[in-house]
Design a protein that fits this description.
- This protein has 2 domains: 39 residues, no CATH class; 142 residues, Nucleoside Triphosphate Pyrophosphohydrolase (Alpha-Beta Complex).
- The protein is 21% helix and 39% strand.
Length: 194
C-alpha cells in the first residue's frame, strides 16, 4: 500500500563506488497534518538471500567465517564473523541465488530449499531485503571446497559445527551476525533437528 504521507523532493547520489549511497530529501506529513522536510541517506546494495544448511542425522550445521571490515572498524579485533552462507541476488530470483551462493561459498550443491521468511536487516540506512532459507545437506552433496568466488575477493572458511555448539556460540557472543542468529533460532524454535 502506497504511503501518501511521503513525497520525494530530491535524490542525490553521494557515492556509487562499491554500491550506491543516496541522500534523499522528502516531505513527511505527520499525523496532525503538518508537514516537515527531512533528509536521510540510504545505501542500496541490492537484495540478498541467506541459508542455514543443516544435517538432522548428524546434528550439524554449515556456517562460514570471513573478514568483515565494518565489524573490524567497530571494535571486532579480528574482523572475522561466523555467518550463515549469504549473497546478493544479482538479478536472480532468491531461490536460484541462494543455491548459487551455497555452492560457491560452502561447496555443497543443494536442490531443495525452503524459504522461511524475509526481513529488512538495517532499515534505517540500508535498502536491502534479505530472503531466509533452510535446507538439509549431506556429505554426498559436497562438490567442491567452497570458499567463495575468487573474482569477488571472497576468502571464506567453511565450518561444520554441531547444532549445540552453534547455539552455544550465540550465548558466548562468538556468533554476532543477525541473519545467523535468526536462522539458528528459527531452527531451534521449529525443531529442525528432531
Amino acid at each position: 500500500m502506497k504511503n501518501d504521507n511521503i513525497k520525494i523532493i530530491n535524490t542525490e547520489v553521494l557515492s556509487d563506488n562499491w554500491y550506491t549511497l543516496k541522500k534523499i530529501t522528502f516531505e513527511y506529513t505527520r499525523k496532525d497534518g503538518t508537514t516537515e522536510i527531512q533528509n536521510r541517506e540510504a545505501y542500496d546494495r541490492g537484495n540478498g538471500a541467506t541459508i542455514l544448511l543443516y544435517n538432522r542425522a548428524n546434528q550439524t550445521v554449515i556456517l562460514t567465517r570471513q573478514f568483515r571490515l565494518p565489524t573490524y572498524i567497530n571494535g571486532n579485533e579480528s574482523g572475522m564473523l561466523i555467518e550463515t552462507c549469504a549473497g546478493l541476488l544479482d538479478k536472480d530470483n532468491p531461490e536460484t541465488a541462494i543455491k548459487r551462493e551455497t555452492e560457491e561459498e560452502t561447496g555443497y550443491k543443494i536442490k531443495d530449499v525452503k524459504k522461511v521468511f524475509e526481513a529488512y536487516m538495517s532499515p534505517g540506512s540500508v535498502t536491502e531485503i534479505l530472503y531466509f532459507f533452510v535446507a538439509e545437506y549431506s556429505k554426498d552433496m559436497k562438490v567442491n571446497e567452497g570458499g567463495g568466488h575468487h573474482d569477488e575477493q571472497e576468502n571464506i572458511e567453511v565450518l561444520e559445527l554441531s547444532f549445540s555448539d552453534a547455539l552455544n556460540k550465540l550465548e558466548t557472543g562468538e556468533i554476532k551476525d543477525g541473519k545467523t542468529i535468526m536462522l539458528l533460532q528459527y531452527a531451534q524454535i521449529n525443531n529442525l533437528m528432531r
